[in-house]
Design a protein that fits this description.
The protein has 365 residues and is of the alpha/beta class. The chain is 39% helix and 19% strand. α1 crosses α2.
Length: 365
């Protein structure tokens, strides 16, 4: 008789995927699971078989990590400052409710934050319409008495409290990440599923990403430039310039810190920073000294990788260089999101599988 309770390896065999992919599906919540007293994951066969008729990428798709926030112009700046430090996803901030409504219709977020502080009756009408349009979206309302002013809204007192509540929602249903020598977002398990879904890991070089590392190295006058992807154990380089190795242990990755924010993360002298001074890439002879990186986000707001530059001498990042690196990373995000749109189109039309498009041929000359 077939077993009703399966190990991860047995689930992988039924789904026809690698054990690693099955692990990501299970840890990301696509398959309900529990842990044995010995710490091993177990799943019900019925739950695994329920995924068989779904395209793998659809089954593995993590929930959106996008947040929309709408606030009056004076308070919107505060929300944008909070958005910069959001490790679990991407927050888009609007002061115009109509603009927020358009964004909502184009790509429904996981969470909608509505600030009603100081809203006059006309603006409240707009905010009501926005909340009405947000079917299936978690709504957080900021302001005194706000829960009674908007349907389905949970009241929070301050913008900071709203972002703290949003982080809890984005990490809901996931086991707390094991202790690591680097920071991790609450929804790291979902980020790993999103990374796997890109289809970029362990693929050949591609011109679209090699162009980014070349431009970043030239714009910042840096000898090393990388597009990095962070798995549970590895930092793998989708594109690299000025570096021979193709990957490092994840614990070596300065980009762990880049993925915890939405702007450029830089360190002028790695050897003088207690977070990195003992890093093998820093402590070695001729070790790294300067680092600057910016996150690359997928279509659901997950930071799947980063674009970074490295130097073997301490440096100060100028504002123009920081802007250049950020804009190039956004180009990387656009490339990843375009591939995601193509994948979803193939799924919707029933053509092909969910793999990333084949890489472009290498450049000549």
């Amino acid at each position: 008789m077939d077993k009703d309770i399966l190990t991860t390896a047995e689930a992988a065999k039924i789904l026809g995927v690698s054990t690693r992919t099955a692990q990501l599906l299970i840890e990301g919540g696509s398959v309900p699971s529990w842990k044995t007293p010995g710490g091993h994951r177990r799943v019900y066969r019925a739950d695994v078989e329920g995924l068989i008729d779904l395209p793998l990428a659809a089954a593995a798709a993590p929930p959106s990590a996008r947040i929309l926030a709408v606030a009056s112009a004076p308070r919107a700046a505060l929300y944008r400052d909070l958005a910069v430090g959001l490790a679990e996803g991407e927050a888009l901030v609007f002061d115009d409710p109509s603009a927020a409504e358009r964004a909502l219709s184009q790509a429904p977020p996981r969470i909608l934050i509505i600030d009603i502080d100081g809203a006059d009756p006309a603006r409240m009408d707009q905010l009501h319409r926005l909340a009405d349009e947000a079917s299936g979206v978690r709504i957080l309302a900021v302001g005194a008495g706000s829960a009674g002013d908007l349907p389905r809204a949970r009241a929070v007192e301050t913008p900071k409290a709203a972002f703290e509540a949003a982080r809890e929602v984005l990490g809901q249903g996931l086991d707390k990440a094991a202790a690591a020598p680097y920071p991790l977002a609450l929804n790291e398990a979902h980020r790993l599923v999103a990374l796997e879904r890109t289809g970029l890991l362990d693929t050949p070089p591609e011109e679209a990403f090699d162009r980014l590392t070349w431009l970043a190295a030239r714009a910042l006058e840096a000898p090393i430039s990388l597009v990095t992807l962070l798995t549970p154990a590895r930092q793998w380089f989708k594109s690299r310039l000025g570096l021979d190795m193709a990957e490092t242990p994840r614990s070596w990755a300065f980009c762990n810190y880049t993925l915890m924010g939405k702007e450029v993360f830089s360190v002028e002298d790695l050897s003088a920073d207690p977070r990195f001074a003992d890093n093998p890439a820093v402590a070695a002879d001729d070790g790294f000294r300067f680092y600057a990186g910016a996150p690359i986000l997928d279509e659901d707001g997950y930071p799947v990788g980063s674009l970074c530059v490295i130097d073997r001498k301490p440096r100060v990042l100028t504002s123009d260089q920081s802007r250049a690196l950020m804009e190039l990373a956004r180009m990387g995000s656009t490339e990843v999101r375009l591939r995601g749109a193509q994948r979803r189109l193939r799924q919707a039309t029933g053509r092909g599988d969910a793999k990333a498009p084949p890489p472009a041929p290498p450049r000549r000359g």
